[in-house]
Amino acid sequence: MKALVYTSSGEALQYGDYPDPTPGDGEVLVQLRAAALNHRDVWITQGLYPGIRTPSILGSDGAGVSEGNEVVINPGIDWGDNPAYPSRGYKVIGMPDDGTFAQYIAVQRNQLAPKPDHLSWEQAAALPLGGLTAYRAIFTKAKVSAGQRVLVTGIGGGVALMAAQFALAAGAEVWGTSSSAEKLQKAKKMGFAGGVNYKDADWYTQLSAHAVDFDVIVDSAGGDAFAHLVKLCRPGGCIVVYGGGKGLSSFKPQHLFWRQISIHGTSMGADQEFQDMVDFVAQHRITPVVDSVYALSDGNNAFQRMDRGLQFGKIVFSIPQ
Amino acid sequence: MKALVYTSSGEALQYGDYPDPTPGDGEVLVQLRAAALNHRDVWITQGLYPGIRTPSILGSDGAGVSEGNEVVINPGIDWGDNPAYPSRGYKVIGMPDDGTFAQYIAVQRNQLAPKPDHLSWEQAAALPLGGLTAYRAIFTKAKVSAGQRVLVTGIGGGVALMAAQFALAAGAEVWGTSSSAEKLQKAKKMGFAGGVNYKDADWYTQLSAHAVDFDVIVDSAGGDAFAHLVKLCRPGGCIVVYGGGKGLSSFKPQHLFWRQISIHGTSMGADQEFQDMVDFVAQHRITPVVDSVYALSDGNNAFQRMDRGLQFGKIVFSIPQ
């Protein structure tokens, strides 16, 4: 089969022939129609993950056809029985096991969910990892409900945009931050109440002039801004953290305990949450935002676009049939 | 009546005569039998609270007799209807309103709960503020249950000890940290599984050699140790923060989100939690630890003992009849 192959850190990805996967016990073959990039894929090519194996096929997001059914793939393997946290054996497809940047992948049958009818292949491939992480953040952890005020930081990212879309579908008032005026304008068209550019030195003053008392804040940036996020939360509110390499800046515990605020760490989600997320997307006819579609053979340009943070929504590969 | 009167910052407290309180609408008079100190009282005398009024009577904790009933007093006034967080009008007795370091106090009738029969006046006075804060931390926020492993930092403090006692009563395995070997020994006698001295440079290594994977950590210290607490939490566990002037040290968000950990800020508690707490104490025959009992006329020595952090449990005043 054709695949985009990762050979070693710092090297360009190689598009070419690779052995077809052989399904193991309980596994089925999926003929992929589209796949999507995550930051995880870029970080792996930069050597930022433990246990990297080469050569291998990256990619955690995919949609395709399996046993005649149109499916999306749950990127999480072996979450385990406890919805609160994953088992020790939990892993994400696309390292160490081969991923979705290929014509075929073998996955457990219970990792499949029906592709929502209203989505194209590219839109469906944009859904799984970001949708799962966002669904757990918004509903399981933050328990967002109609009428609440929600702030999502860094709205260009795949998880951030899905989180905002889920909050909008739930009837929340959603605000965003971004480093780009253009992205903020796109967000406004999607139904955001407003937003600010976090590169402005006075972003906090700008935002708090328009909206304070957020019930829920969804963040993956951390850094110096975090202390401001704590102040933007309403009493009894929460901040959900699903990423952030920078470390959380020191903040005053008083802001946390006087005001009864919680901070929840979250990442990925349980199998049931994946099924619930796909059902929610189908029911509310939510369409993941596709930033751009690349041919799989043009993989290196797609990786560069993500590494430069240019995207608004998901960067998708169409897979040759 | 006799009272311990705070006149101005930096001055010694004055023991002497003070006008009797006059109950307002819905209020009743309580003839106090004992009162107890909190850090709050000491910080007020150091000018560390906003809106300080003088002369006034400090003290948030008290037990006594009202309309022929033996009662303990809920130190929180006007929490409001939402159990998630207090109303804007919420305040704690003992500043700006007069407190419990006196022979009489006027409080709302619904602030009273029956004194548990198994407690002496001194033990009952040691219960309210620490018990309420600890109860909300342990049960409402952390949802501690039998068989869980709980770490309480700074176990000499009133809230910390009550939190540990509640967790023990719930069937948890409880560990503690302290700056004093003597306090750790006392804790061991109370049923703690063990503990470490947080002044030891290698406290984290010592503790993690004996116990890791804490379901719940209760902290009011913050500071540099906080990043270690995050690592001591098991996946899916939580840290409850009820104080800490030092600021939370910067910690890696990865430790939070990969491991699905939550941090909950908490302070005081709702009216229903106060009633539930007193019932729980009566049912499990929990006895608050009384560090020492002072005559109200000896107030300045009691304040000094707390300021120096010498106590294990509550510092109590007996009130002259």
| Overall CATH architecture of the largest domain in chain A | Alpha-Beta Complex
The major beta sheet of chain A can be summarized as: 7 strands, mixed
Structural class computed from helices and strand pairing of chain A: alpha/beta
List the secondary-structure elements of chain A in sequence, H or E. EEEHEEEEEEEHHEHEHEHEHEHEHEHE
Please work out how many helical segments of chain A DSSP would assign: 10
CATH homologous group name of the largest domain in chain A: Medium-chain alcohol dehydrogenases, catalytic domain
Measured as a percent range, the helix fraction of chain A is: 25-40%
Globular, elongated, flat, extended or rod-shaped: what is the shape of chain A?
globular
* Mean pLDDT, all residues of chain A: 95
Look up the CATH topology of the largest domain in chain A.
Quinone Oxidoreductase, Chain A, domain 1
* Count of all domains of chain A: 2
CATH secondary-structure class of the largest domain in chain A: Alpha Beta
| Beta-strand percent range of chain A | 25-35%
Number of beta-strand segments of chain A: 18
